[in-house]
Amino acid sequence: RGRGDRGGRGGRGRGGPRKDEEEWIPCTKLGRLVKAGKIEHLEDIYVFSIPIKEHQIIDKFIAKDALKEENMAMFPVQKASSAGQRTRFKSYSVVGDSNGHIGVGARSNKEASGAMKSALIAAKLNIIPVRRGFWGNKIGAPHTIPMKVTGKAGSVTVRLVPAPRGAGIVASPVPTKILQLAGIQDVYTGSTGKTRTRGNFIMATFYALRKTYGFLTPDLWADNGTKRDPTDEFSRDCAKLQ
Known about the structure:
By secondary structure, the chain is of the alpha+beta class. The protein is built from 8 helices and 8 strands.
């Protein structure tokens, strides 16, 4: 029996490169600069508040073995439609390198695996820097948060308070995992509201950590000079890379 125009067994895609291993072709100006090596540090992106639209940018700066992933919650959500009820799965994922970077993503999908994969990509796109500091004397490496911060999502409010070295993370299991992935070693926490709503509990903790760089403390008053925006500085290179 002939195979027609199917091109033999090669047309079935066997033995070819896997989809997730294909070469990254950047679609944004920032992506092209990162791939070309014009931007060397992730912090250079945060300084100019450049939005990250491609998750491969994070993979370029943070090694795969350093970036830890955790699925924090997965539950079905329903929507009433003309045909009845449509059930989908919602997933919350957290990524962090335990060294001052944390990201949280939430996505829905018809399949549980699809929701987890989409949430993981969203978490990488939402990665933020977390500022760490000291409790008392500045001896050794930073181990706690530099000041008291509060985050709110829905009815849930999470408050983080600096703690002395050795105190550990005094928190419930949900914030503990997020704080560990952010690289915080010692912190006191308090929460109010409906913390059983896990999605809001996760986001409130994330919003609190995001505020750590929102305070301009005296040690940040020094004038470090001005830099040009990378997309402006390397605009000619961007035109060549397209």
